[in-house]
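For consistency, the fold was encoded as tokens, as this record shows:
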Amino acid sequence: MTLTHFVPDARDLRRIDWLLVGCALAIAVLGIAFIWSASIRLSQDTGDWAASDQPLRQAVWLAIGLIALLFVIVPSYTFLMRFSWPLYVLGILLLVGLFFAPPIRFVHRWYRVAGVLLQPSEYMKVILILALSRYLMYRENYRRLSGLIGPFLLTFIPLILVVREPDLGTAMVFLPVLFALLYVAGAQRKHLIAIICVGLALLPLVYFFVLHDYQRERVICFINPAGHMKNMYAGGFQVMNSVCAVGSGGLAGKGWGQGPQNLYGFIPADLTDFIFAVLAEEWGFLGAILLLVLYFVIILCGLGIAQSTREPFGRLVAVGAVVMFAAQACINIGMTIQLTPVTGLPLPFVSYGGSSLLTGFIALGLLINVGKNRVLVLADEDFK
């Protein structure tokens, strides 16, 4: 392996799906704009409204993400496939190492490297897609119930570690990715439905013996947010003010940087988990629809790439990336409008956070890579 594997040439640039890149870049620019808006606060010293340096930091991470995008796009995804298992082992070691590192904000989610916080669970989402795709690409035993043990072990090892951090929001993305890849790879529907039914039956045990107290409070708050209005830790305060902000935006919003719920600090975690509420308050229904349309184009293009790719590993990687984006967007937006419980899950390409933004562009790079490299498959059936 040499650096020439990762240096783009004119042919590589011509074969890039620029519609995908353009949509992701547009969403990221929107994200920086509303990170700026969400960071505006009234200075106690000067009495003026001023923004923090967080938008600039996000812009730096955007530049890094675009470099990573090119880095992932250039070599064929079949070349990248050989790194699936080493990356999986590295990801598990990084997740385990968090519990031996000093906690940050009372949890074990980040490493502090040269003053920058790195979140291994974010990168593990992409690594899991690669590992599962490599495992499922030519196997037939997963069509039997006993054959599902392998992919479930591959998923639940990092999932349990991420839940223990605790980071339930990120862990929730692993399961849709697993079930989507199993379905596409040919696992029998009756087996998947049976496993889902068993999982639903075990939810009470998860609630009482796996979730932390504050996570159980968030579930209760989801059912009765008004009754937990004063409990910010449980999410009642967040949800009620988020719904109020989204509803008050109306058709065209209050104007960029003019949302009162945002300006006066009524939306906690407005830079990260609840940034959609900031966008909906300031740009209204039209702004929210614009964002959803951009996501829809990414998902639709990604599904088109998956459908037109017969090579098993590439098809599974494309489906995994699409499901990752869709699951994160649905869960994040759902919690801001009271459709899902509050979880610490960022909105793809929008929420403040370098690890999340970089992971999004790496996953997008894999998706584009699959689309631009058509591998000839001579088998008469898929996954043979």
